[in-house]
Structures are given as structure tokens and as C-alpha cells.
Amino acid sequence: MKKIIYSLAIAASALTFNSCVGDLDTLPLNETDKTAQQAYQTLEDFEKGLAYIYGSYSLVSQNDAGSSDIAVEDAGQSELLRQYVVLNEMSADALKCTWGDSYITDTQNATWSSTPNAATIAVYTRCMVTITRANEFLIQSGASSLEGVAGLRAEARFLRAYAYYMLLDLYGNPPFATEANIGGDLPKQFDTDFEKGRKGLFEWLEAELKELLASEDMPGVGEVSYPRVTKGAAQALLARMYLNAEVYTGEARWADAMTAAEATINLGYSLCPNYEELFMQDNGENTDSRNELIFAIAYDRDKTQSWGGTTHLVSGSLDDANSEAIAAALGYPEGSMIARERWNGYHVPTTFVADNFELSDVEWGGDGLGYNRATSDKRAFFSNVGCSETFDISTIESGWRCWKFTSRDSEGNLYSSDSYDKFSSIDFPMIRLAEMYLIYAEAKARIDGGITTDAKVLGYVKALRDRAGLSTPSSVDTEFILKERACELMWEGHRRTDLIRYGYFTSMSYPWPYKGGVPDGKAAIADYRIVYPILNTDLTENPNLVQNPGY
Fold first, then answer.
1. Residues 166 and 24 both lie in one domain
2. How many alpha carbons fall within 13 Å on the CB side of residue 271?
């Protein structure tokens, strides 16, 4: 698997890993180490520097998977994508956990505060690390005349933009710094007023992505090797931002969301015929799945090991009984396990499955999956061996288990023997084509007053429903699309953002288990919790910053 993320030890980090972006003019502590100017000499040097930025999304240090370079005690819990999923899925209705870690309790019960926990530290800090590395790369590459460097710079700008998008969505009004406004002064927000600051960051991101799309330097689709980013990723991120523009700026941009989504669709991507292959161990090598992946973060059990990433999604949910039952249902020899490790903590509340997935012949607590998989939604990857129907946070054997991210590959190989490494090689889908279909459908339905019979929308929906083995209605409304997003994009980091856009995240009218810390979820969450707080450690280090309202 050619997914090598290089570690390039340059004097690039101007980030104190427990605070925000500071002065970039740093020198190596060890006089034998290279400065950034010395490290960047050849095109290969610049390619390694770019890989260092890509690595910010998946790696926890330059050492090993058990060593973290930020102030989170458990290295696996310090990884960006793991905690990105936690903040977006566990804070809503799709993912719950029976472990007692403080960040889990905070996230599930909506009791997080400006005092950092593992999840809020990891996402905030690693996004800032990505931005800092990208800024340094852009500074050091700015004067280079080497052929090919301009394209690398465009990729770095997108990786920085995506990190800022994550901060925009999760933290609202973060500190802002680019290669043009750093060097000595602590960074500022776009505006100390939250709404103006968030809108300012949105507008900067929009302009940045449009500039990349217009640039001859940004690689086109197919012009660079997977999983490097292209104009398709920039176009798709614009579509997602426009879909949520009313939340971010106060102004709806439905028509722009449609236009950007369709522009992405027309770039030549195609749906993977088999939904399951999108989340298998070889999804980055499988041409069918790769044709749907617009932007993915690469993981490799040998090259980019992590206890976060997709490893926690493969291992987090199952116990031995469910792992063995799933393997048996798929035809593997007796005693086989579908997951290499079984951490036995992640659950899907019964209500989430019942409200969104079309399952047939559901039964509880037996020795099989608990439903007829052959006649159910093919996007459903659940089991309930030994589990009671009503989900209870204090009862491990309750609710559904999920195995969407699997230890199998597309050839049927099951990588769960004692000799197989415990880490996952599944690439995480940051953006894929199916999301663009659903963005177009939702935006058109909203333009049409909440329900649409538009032929193009129905065609996109039918393509997804056909793949799932389901029929397509003659019209679709926004509630139908929300359910489709729940099934299609489950555990891919979308659910919190979707519920906020629909006005359901904080509302008492849309309950889920343990919302607001209440077992039946019939509780309202304070409106200010649609974003997470700026870390109080950053506020202490940087007096230019103002905390988000409510914290």
C-alpha cells in the first residue's frame, strides 16, 4: 500500500501545542537539526513537507501510535479524526458510548465547558497544527521556482482551508492566521463579535476555495495520485459550506449549494456499486470505492498507524459474541471474528436505527444479527446479540452494535487473526459523491418549499436508494432527506451539523437518549452549544481572543 506519510523534521512548528498560533520565527533546539530553509531544497523535499501537512489529519506524533505530541494523555484519543467523529456524532443521536471517560460524558450529556477535555483539545489543537504547518510550508515555498511546487502549494492551501472549515463548524470563531499575517504577533479572530467573526471566516474560506478552483495550479481530478486533493475537493467543500451557510452567516445559499454540488458531480466521480466496499480495509486500493471518494484521509496498518482514525470505528463497538455472530452470518468459518479487537463500548441507540433505517424481521437478544439483512437497507450494519432493546448507558448489552467499518476487504479476506496488525487500513471518507447528491436534493427541496418532485433530485435519490436495495418515492421532502443522510452518512462526521441546520440539535421537540443528560432525551440544549468553546488555555495564552457566547 503506497500511502506513506513522511515525517519531515523542520523548524515549522510555531504552535505551542496547548495554545494557539504564535511566532513562526523559531530555530531548532538541536543545532544539528535543519532549519526550514535548509530542509527545502529539492522537489522531493517539498513533497515531504506537503505530506507532513497531510499527516496532521491522521498521525499523533512523529514517533509511534502510542505517543502523542499534544497534551492528551491517551495517544489514540488525541487523534484528529477520532475526536472529530466523537464531537459530531456522539453529541447527537447516532453514537453513544458506555465508557466513563470525561470527554465521553461531556459530549453525550452536552455538559462540555471551556475547560478542555480530550475531544475538544484534540480537534481544536490539531486543526491549528495543520494550519501552522501549511502556513510555514507556504512561506518556505513562496520563492521556489522549482517545477511542480506551485501545485503543492495549492494542495497545502486546501488542507489549511479544510482545517479552518472544521474550526468554523465546530468552534465558530477561532483565531485566524495565514502566511501573510503571521510573524511575531498573536493571532486575532476575524471579529470579536461572534456572528461577525464567524461570517468573516466563512467569507474568507469561500474566496480561498473559489481562488483555488480558478487557479491552474490546483490539480484537476485525476491529475495527482490518490489520496491527494484536487479541485473536486475544493468544489465539494464549497457545496457543503453553502448548504450550511444560513447557520454560519445568517443568509441561506440554497441555489449556490445546488450549483456547487452539481459542479462536483459533473467532474467525473461515480458511485461505488457496493456500499460496503466504501468502508473496507482496501477502500483506497479498490477502484470502485475510490471513484466515489472526493477527499479521504489515508490510513495504513504499517505506514500510518493510529488508535484513532478508522481503527476506533472498527474496534470500538463490538464484543466477542457480536463479532463472532457477524462473521458467522457472512459465511466465515466457526470461531472467526469480524473485528481484530473488541473494545465493547460504542453503541447505536435503538431509536436512531428505528427512526431512520428500514429493517425487516427485527428480533432482540438472540444469537444472530437481530434482523433480516438480505431484505433490509443495505447501508445497515448492525447486530444485537445478547442485547436488550431499550438503550441504557449503564448497560453494555443494550441497543445496537455497528460494524459499518469492517476488518474485511473487497476480496472477502478477513483480517482479524492473531497475526494481523491491530490497526486499520480503511481510509476515512471526508467527502464523497453521495453527499453531493444529497446536498443537491436538500437545497432543491428547500427552494421548492420543503418538498420537490424535481426529476434530477429523484434521479440522485434513486441512485442511492437502488444501491441500498430500497424503493424511491415520487417526491421527497426535507425530512426524508435528513433520514437519507442519517443512513447514507452514518458515523462519517455529519450528524451534529445536520441537526443544527434543521433546528433539531438544541430543540426539546427532537429527543434522543441522554440528550442534555436526560435518559429519554426529552430536554432542550442551550442554543449557545451549537458550537464548542474556545479552549480556556488558549484564552489565557492569547489576550486577543474572545470566548464564544455562553461559555
1. yes
2. 20
Which three cell numbers mark 498?
Answer: 445536520
Contact residues for 308 (Cβ-Cβ < 8 A; gap 6+)? 58, 60, 76, 77, 78, 79, 80, 81, 82, 83
Residue 266, Ramachandran bin (φ over 0: left; ψ between -120 and 50: alpha; else beta)? alpha
Predicted confidence band at 488 (pLDDT cuts at 50, 70, 90)? very high
3-class state of residue 286 by DSSP: coil
Tell whether the model's pLDDT for residue 93 goes beyond 70. Answer: yes
Residue 422, in any domain of the structure = no
- Is 363 found in the same domain as 487? no
Reported as a pLDDT band with limits 50, 70 and 90, residue 259 is: very high
Say yes or no: 11 and 86 in one domain: yes
Residue 436 and residue 293 in one domain? yes
| 278 and 328 both lie in a single domain | no
Cβ atoms of 163 and 137 within 8 Å: the answer is: no
Based on the domain organization, do 100 and 207 belong to the same domain?
yes
Residue type, 263: A
Please report, for the chain, how many H helices and E strands are present, in that order: 19, 8
Instruction: Return the ∠ at Cα 442 (arms to 437 and 445), rounded to 5°.
Output: 125
Q: For residue 291, report the phi and psi dihedrals to the nearest 5 degrees.
A: -65, -20
Cell for 362? 427485527
CATH of residue 209's domain is 1.25.40.390
Which residues span the domain enclosing 320? Answer: 307-415
Strand (E) or helix (H) holding 429: strand 428-432
> Residue 244 carries which DSSP code?
T
Nearest Cα to Cα of residue 81 among 49, 56, 108, 102: 56
Contacts (Cβ under 8 Å, ≥6 apart) of 45? 8, 39
Is residue 49 situated within a structural domain?
Answer: yes
Domains identified in the chain, total number:
3
Give dist(CA 508, CA 521) in Å, integer: 8
Q: Return the C-alpha cell found at 124.
A: 481544536
| Bond into 219 cis (ω within 30) | no
CA–CA dist 227, 1 (Å, integer)? 12
Q: Are residues 141 and 276 in the same domain?
A: no
Whole-prediction pTM? 0.94
